[in-house]
């Protein structure tokens, strides 16, 4: 039996450090493990469902597509584990303090800045949310790192800058990004106001398909879940990956994004890429 | 169940509220609940993001409360786990024999989180590096720093015959060359010494800075009246390179400080005594004060080293012999430097003056030899062996 091969998208050079470190950890504990890097999530998902890799460290949007694509092939995808820090995220809709808008519906007819076309937190979820609130908006999109599903914070930062500069009426940001932009000074204290919060929803997960060898997958999950933050060898890797503990995967946190992908016509029900202006 | 409550007032997480949260959560047990009040805009949103990143959990306040908090933080255990296996990097006043590499750059006595880099500081043995006098020597060195622009009477008028001035220029050229070597040698060891031996690092750092000033003042004296410097001989540079090339700390310190800088203290005293002008007298005196300290540390740590490991004397002996062999066929001291010293001490060209100057340089060489023998004996060499070894020291003085 060959090793369990996991895919990861290299949105940042640290991905190599993280998974090289984890790989050593797995191999020392008897799990034959290797990883391959992808430049974007779409190819990773396609390779997962095709069986070229047995696990994929997926963005939430990649999870949505993997689930649909697998199902269309008569397979079942499931989130094996996820980071504790990826549970219950929210998106905020932010305006300048002097704006007349009090709630998302007030943005009807206005211009709204978002992250990249494929950002769940800064584009898909908020745009679907605004549509649901009955606000028809003009979208000013900041496409940074297309194909990385919003892993790049730069698109959100550009959206926040556009809001501060008065170029747009509102910006859509991850809750944590709003705090970051305030702390770093991209947004001035007191200059913006949150008029809507959408969520909670879950973020990344480790996706597996039922064609993968069960024994390897079980051992993989066991080793991930057993990683302790008190272990001095693992902690730098966990810090780098931005988690404290791996938790069991759950499917319940993706309904908001599933609905958004449908409403905005991003993916089809069988995992087809429908968004015309999406070129990863 | 009674909940702890924290009122943040108008303070938001974008402006430091996390300090109050941390302080209040710290003494609680994992799973304990903290109700948070506050008026900062978007506080609930930011609390959610902050808790996620910090490993705490955020709950909405229970319904039906008369004065509900903004949210309830359920304490996680991330911070406890981080510091669970931390250890102290010794104690501030206690230098250990062999500090482990993982203490790395941590201050001596700091609480060190486990993990992280294990930098290679290959000079990590107290016996090799330490001298009990090091902290006091460092304090002394720091207190005695002087400003080259202010400490020397650069503009004081003086008259010196042209040829004596040329001799001063030659000697200053030679001194500068030696100072460059004296700077490089400790500088190259600095980055290899385990930071646990902080005072040794500090002392050597100041020593490097001392040499930088010496280079400056000797060059400046040389160029005070002349546009050109004197000569640099191949033999002199070969002798200095034998110093710079030594990669063993004990041996380099021995050759540089105990033998070389020790001899230099005598040379600088000679220059101060026979200087033809006030600027030369002052630069020699200032450099001599620093050099005394350099010699003191070299002798002190090598004496402690030799006490802990008597066999180190065999290596020191071999180092002198090796350098002697390597330099056997070189001229050693630049002949022009020797003659310049004679002329400088003579003060003029009459045969009587030259005879006096020559005798003074001979006495200088005898003083240097005496000093080296005295220091070798302090390191535990018997008198007859100290005499033999001193005779093998480079003719270049440094
Ligand atoms: Fe010096
Ligand atoms: Fe020196």
Walk me through what this model shows.
The complex is a heterodimer of chains A (280) and B (398). Chain A is an alpha/beta fold and 280 residues long. Chain A has two domains: 4-86 and 203-263, D-Maltodextrin-Binding Protein, domain 2; 89-201, Periplasmic binding protein-like II (D-Maltodextrin-Binding Protein, domain 2, 3-Layer(aba) Sandwich). In chain A, 36% of the residues lie in helices and 22% in strands. Chain A is built from nine helices and eleven strands. In chain A, the strands form two sheets. Chain A has a six-stranded mixed beta sheet, sandwiched between helices. A five-stranded mixed beta sheet of chain A has the order 7-6-8-5-9, with helices on both faces. In chain A, strand 1, helix 1 and strand 2 form a beta-alpha-beta unit. In chain A, helix 1 crosses helix 8 (235-241) and helix 4 packs across helix 9 (255-263). Chain A is globular and about 60 Å long. By secondary structure, chain B is mainly α. Chain B has 15 helices and six strands. The termini of chain B are far apart. Chains A and B meet through strand 5, helix 6 and strand 9 of A and helix 2 and helix 3 of B. The complex binds fe (ii) ion (2 copies). Chain A: It holds the Pfam family Phosphonate-bd. Chain A: It comes from Phytohabitans flavus. Chain A: This is Phosphate ABC transporter substrate-binding protein.
């Amino acid at each position: 039996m060959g090793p369990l091969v996991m895919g990861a998208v290299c949105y940042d050079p640290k991905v190599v450090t993280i998974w090289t470190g984890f790989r050593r950890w797995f191999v020392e504990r008897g799990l034959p493990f290797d990883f391959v890097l992808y430049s974007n999530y779409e190819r990773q998902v396609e390779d997962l469902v095709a069986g070229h890799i047995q696990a994929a460290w997926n963005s939430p949007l990649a999870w949505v597509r993997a689930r649909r694509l697998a199902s269309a092939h008569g397979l079942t995808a499931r989130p094996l584990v996820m980071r504790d820090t990826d549970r219950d995220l929210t998106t905020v809709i932010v305006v300048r303090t002097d704006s007349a808008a009090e709630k998302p519906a007030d943005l009807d007819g206005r211009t709204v800045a978002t992250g990249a076309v494929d950002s769940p937190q800064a584009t898909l979820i908020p745009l679907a949310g605004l549509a649901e609130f009955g606000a028809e908006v003009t979208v000013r999109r900041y496409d940074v790192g297309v194909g990385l599903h919003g892993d790049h914070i730069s698109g959100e930062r550009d959206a926040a800058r556009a809001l501060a500069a008065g170029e747009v009426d509102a910006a859509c940001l991850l809750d944590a990004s709003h705090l970051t932009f305030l702390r770093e000074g991209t947004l001035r204290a007191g200059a913006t106001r949150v008029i809507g919060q959408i969520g909670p929803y879950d973020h990344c997960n480790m996706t597996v398909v039922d064609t993968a060898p069960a024994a390897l997958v079980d051992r993989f999950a066991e080793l991930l879940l057993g990683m302790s933050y008190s272990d001095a060898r693992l902690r730098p890797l966990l810090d780098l990956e931005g988690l404290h503990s791996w938790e069991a995967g759950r499917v319940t946190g993706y309904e908001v994004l599933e609905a958004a992908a449908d409403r905005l016509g991003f993916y089809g029900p069988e995992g087809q890429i429908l968004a015309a202006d999406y070129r990863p | 169940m009674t909940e702890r409550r924290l009122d943040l007032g108008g303070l938001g997480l974008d402006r430091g509220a996390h300090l109050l949260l941390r302080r209040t959560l710290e003494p609680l047990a994992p799973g304990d609940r903290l109700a948070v009040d506050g008026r900062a805009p978007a506080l609930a949103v930011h609390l959610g993001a902050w808790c996620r990143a910090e490993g705490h959990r955020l709950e909405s306040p229970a319904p039906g409360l008369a004065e509900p908090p903004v949210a309830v933080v359920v304490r996680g255990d991330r911070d406890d786990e981080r510091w669970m296996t931390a250890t102290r990097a010794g104690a501030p006043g206690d230098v250990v024999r062999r500090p482990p590499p993982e203490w790395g750059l941590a201050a001596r006595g700091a609480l060190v989180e486990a993990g992280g880099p294990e930098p290679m500081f290959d000079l990590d043995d107290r016996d090799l590096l330490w001298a009990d006098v090091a902290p006091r020597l460092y304090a002394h060195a720091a207190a005695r720093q002087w400003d080259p622009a202010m400490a020397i009477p650069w503009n004081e008028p003086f008259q010196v015959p042209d040829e004596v001035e040329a001799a001063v220029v030659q000697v200053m050229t030679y001194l500068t060359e030696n100072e460059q070597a004296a700077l490089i040698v400790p500088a190259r060891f600095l980055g290899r010494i385990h930071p646990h031996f902080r005072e040794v690092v500090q002392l050597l750092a100041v020593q490097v800075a001392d040499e930088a000033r010496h280079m400056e003042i000797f060059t400046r004296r040389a160029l005070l009246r002349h546009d050109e410097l004197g000569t640099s001989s191949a033999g002199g540079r070969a002798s200095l390179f034998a110093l710079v090339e030594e990669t063993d700390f004990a041996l380099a310190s021995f050759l540089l400080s105990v033998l070389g800088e020790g001899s230099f203290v005598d040379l600088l005293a000679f220059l101060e005594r026979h200087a033809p002008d006030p600027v030369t007298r002052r630069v020699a005196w200032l450099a001599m004060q620093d050099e005394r300290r350099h010699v003191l540390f070299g002798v002190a740590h090598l004496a402690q080293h030799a006490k802990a490991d008597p066999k180190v004397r065999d290596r020191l002996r071999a180092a002198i012999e090796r350098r002697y062999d390597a330099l056997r066929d070189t001229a050693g001291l630049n002949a022009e430097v020797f003659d310049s010293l004679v002329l400088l001490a003579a003060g003029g060209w009459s045969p009587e003056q030259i005879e006096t100057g020559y005798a003074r340089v001979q006495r200088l060489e005898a003083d240097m030899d005496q000093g080296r023998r005295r220091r070798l004996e302090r390191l535990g060499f018997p008198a007859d062996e100290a005499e033999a070894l001193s005779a093998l020291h480079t003719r270049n003085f440094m």
